[in-house]
Amino acid sequence: MKIIIAGGTGFIGAAAAGRLARSGHEVVILSRQPSRRGAPYRQEPWDGLHAQSCARALEGADAIVNLAGAPVAQGRWGAVRKMDLIASRVGATRALVEAIRRASRRPAVLVNASAVGYYGDRGDEFLYEESPPGQGFLCDLALAWEAAASEASALGVRVVKLRIGMVLHREGGALARMIPVFRAFLGGPLGTGRQWVSWIAREDLAALIAHAVENPIEGAVNAAAPDPATNAEFAGAVARALGRPCRLGAPAAALRIAFGEMADEILLASQRVFPRKALGSGFSFRYRDLDAALKAALE
Question: What gap in Å lies between CA 196 and CA 166, rounded to an integer?
Fold first, then answer.
């Protein structure tokens, strides 16, 4: 199949592109600044905002994987930052759907990123794909993001909305920011440490993206390992993996001073997510154990 990946040069997109290419698919990357030399896949220009700038690349595509979006957990969320987060996700998805609408031959499937932030702060509640959304900026963002992707359903396209948890790999995401803190003997739980962390190994996420492209799964899909951990358990596992103590924590009040609204919605929020639909569709997680996942992520 010819598979278009928006955001294919990023932390998750590069892993997904590699997985799909190894499965024998033709991979084309949409990029704001396409590289013409040394790039492992063909790249096509796209400004991330307008349908006309990616329409040519989408012609003849069998599947689209949309992973475009500015990082959520970098910097405080001011009004301008929120607008950027919305535009880079909701705006980009709307543009891709409009390009699909204009295509002479539409792709069979759109696999669109979303996030476990959809559920908000839910304490110890088990969260499945049919669980209702929570409250807050991240929840509203995920709702709008998923709604934009769902518009492709009316065009005869199978739509998969991956609600992605914390992605584990040393090269990026939250783990990459945690590694130097723990190596400096400063690591520990955040807030009470009782909040649940839903995580997934990057290798498993890339495999789940390929699974969603190749199999008749649709709608919301929780992209998180079946065994979430509390923040305290997660911090302890990172400490063990790095051979460091797990003594120092960060009080909730200090996190709120440092990060504002983002602290409550990302660092202190509790999401105990279970991947019911992925498992029911026959997908098998390679890393279900957190210690094994962290060991592999740090190698």
Answer: 11
Is residue 111, in this structure, part of any structural domain at all?
yes
Residue 288, pLDDT > 80, answer yes
- Distance (Å, rounded) from C-alpha 292 to C-alpha 212? 24
Domain region containing 82: 2-167+198-224+273-283
The helix (H) or strand (E) run that includes residue 232 is helix 231-242
Q: What's the structural domain count of the chain?
A: 1
Q: Cα–Cα distance between 102 and 30 in angstroms, integer?
A: 17
CATH of the domain at 209: 3.40.50.720
Q: How confident is the model over 81-119, as pLDDT tens digits? A: 999 999 999 999 999 999 999 999 999 999 999 999 999
What pLDDT digit, counting tens, does each position of 123-141 carry? 999 999 999 999 999 999 9
Which residue in this structure is represented by tokens 């003997």?
185
- The answer to whether the beta carbons of residues 297 and 243 sit under 8 Å apart is no
How, if at all, do strands 229-230 and 196-197 pair?
antiparallel
